[in-house]
Structures are given as C-alpha cells and as structure tokens.
Amino acid sequence: MYCPKCLNQTLFIKPKGVVDIYINGKKRDNGRFLYNMDPAYEEEVLSDFTNKCEEFFKWYGDFKNKETIEYIELLTVDIKCENNCRFSPMERFSAVDTIITSEVILDVLTTFGKKYNLEVELKV
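Above: the chain's sequence. Below: its structure in token form.
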C-alpha cells in the first residue's frame, strides 16, 4: 500500500490488530473486532465481523429516522511502513479487501439489511 509519509509503496497491515467498523459514519462503542491474518483464524475473523455488523443493524433498526446504508469503512491503526514512518494514533487506514473482501462485506450488509428492514445501497 501507498505510504502518505514517504510516498512509497511500503505500507502494510500488521499480522494482528483491531479493525473499527463505521457504517454511514456511525460507530458503536463496541463496533470493533480483532483480526489475525493467519489463515487458521479466517473463519473466526469473518464470524467476528458478521456479529459486529448484526449488532449494528439491530441497534440501527430501532431508529425512527433511518437513512439508507450507503457507506462502510473498516479502519485500522495497525499499519507499518517498511521505512519506519511514524503515524499519529488518529491516522487510520482502510482494511477493506485486506482483512475482509468487498464481496463478503456486500453480502453481509445485504443479508442484514433484508433481515432488519434497512435499505442498503453502497456507494463506491
């Protein structure tokens, strides 16, 4: 990935870390999950992501004025640059297609959208 500090393709996601889930810019206090890039943990990571999305949809489904689900962000601070660039704790990087694929994200959101009567129209 591209490093915004040294301007090289030297950025990578650490093998273990935390991902925060933002849906339409909203994040629950417990809207995060642990990941481990080891293939042995792939199902566990997917299960954790799915559970966190369902918790969000249950919570959001109780709102009176619901907006269409248009955006999802999977953000992490667990990034490292091969050139040892430093990042502030506020700098977050996308984990889409690295930790969870776009296809899986769309499938999970569509499934829970139907289950909780929420409209899902993701914009790219």
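The radius of gyration is 15 Å.
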